[in-house]
Design brief:
- There is one protein chain.
- With 171 residues, the chain is mostly helical.
- It is globular, with a radius of gyration of 16 Å.
């Protein structure tokens, strides 16, 4: 039986992408409350799409790839909007975006077509999401650097696992 691409997890992932213009708008007009609301909604859809896909056996290869692209789009768009609105510098945004880009390149170049996010990747994302929230509420930069550093540590763990297990994921 062929699984449908039109399922609840993919709808959640689509919603994440569709909400990005609203997030960009609220970040650029410096509406802290609405920016926080949209970041929380978008990150919640990231959590629930995978949970629902696994619980109701709606996991698809397309959905896994779509989710990865939506995650990257969210992080890149949010951070570049924050640069545009003068919340952070471009160099900090680039530092924060880099692990996601490296992961995408590794998945592609190592032919990890069956790769699914494990604990290190999820924790790396959580710390970037926390950093996004901290940027919007304008906390001390040291906390943002701390979250970014933790994200890098978990990303390194993820990359190690990807390389170590590449035969499992690429077959």
């Amino acid at each position: 039986m062929k699984k449908s691409l039109f399922n609840v997890p993919n709808i959640f992932t689509s919603l994440r992408i569709l909400l990005l213009p609203f997030l960009v708008y609220y970040i650029n007009i410096h509406n802290t409350l609405m920016s926080l609301v949209f970041i929380i909604i978008i990150t919640s859809t990231d959590f629930f799409d995978g949970l629902i896909a696994r619980k109701f056996k709606q996991v698809t290869s397309f959905g896994a790839k779509f989710d990865t692209v939506a995650d990257a789009a969210f992080i890149v768009v949010a951070l570049l909007s924050m640069v545009n609105a003068n919340y952070i510098s471009f160099s900090l945004a680039l530092i924060m975006i880099s692990p996601k880009i490296i992961s995408l390149v590794m998945i592609q170049n190592l032919n990890l077509y069956k790769y699914s996010a494990r604990l290190p990747a999820k924790l790396a994302a959580v710390f970037i999401y926390i950093a996004l929230l901290l940027i919007i509420v304008k906390v001390n930069i040291i906390y943002i650097y701390s979250c970014t550093s933790l994200s890098y540590l978990f990303s390194l763990w993820q990359w190690y696992n990807m390389i170590k297990n590449r035969k499992i994921y690429s077959s």
